[in-house]
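Collaborator request, handled under Task 6.
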Amino acid sequence: MSRPFVLGLTGAIGMGKTQTAAGFLMFGVPVFDADKAVHMLLSPGGKASKDVAVMFPLAVVDGVIDRKKLGHIVFKSIEKLHSLEAILHPLVEDMQKKFIATHARRRTPAVVLDIPLLFETGADAKTDMVVCVYAPSFVQRPRVFARPGMDATRMAAIENNQFSGELKCKLADYVISTRAGRAESLRQVRELVKIINNSSANVWSPHWGHSY
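Structure tokens returned to the collaborator:
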């Protein structure tokens, strides 16, 4: 079993992180998407669905968790948000461990953990390097408001529960700018892939996935 280089990918809302993650996949680096993991956990039959439904009954519609309703509930209360995170975060971390262990067995040189709250949850401690995706506010805000159901109140609630894009960039080891468009972003991703595929991996240990 080899030790893959673990790259943490993060960025504030609307910075272009999804596009950047797609770029890593394009250049052959597997990506663990924390948001997709949460969607799986909350879907019917998902490991978190029953506990979340019991804790937030108003978010349940026809027996299924309505993520939009759930978001409205938790972003109005930091206590409720923390209660939701207490259910979800350990399950997401378990999925991350399985993801890395799988690629260690496959001798994959590097993997990406796409985690919006990477620094906020302390997950950066288990990465070899962190890259932050960034765009100035005049690029970011139109992207955010183009999303269905997004308004200034919801955006403010999201921003209040995560570090600013500027702070994330200061904490990161590497910054990818998405200001100039997809082609330039992909160029930056390609250069970073060359770096991580030829860098020593020091953080991941098989003990993280000792039960797999």
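The cover message to the collaborator said: "The domain at 5-200 is CATH 3.40.50.300 (Rossmann fold). The mean pLDDT is 91. Please let us know whether this matches your experimental observations."
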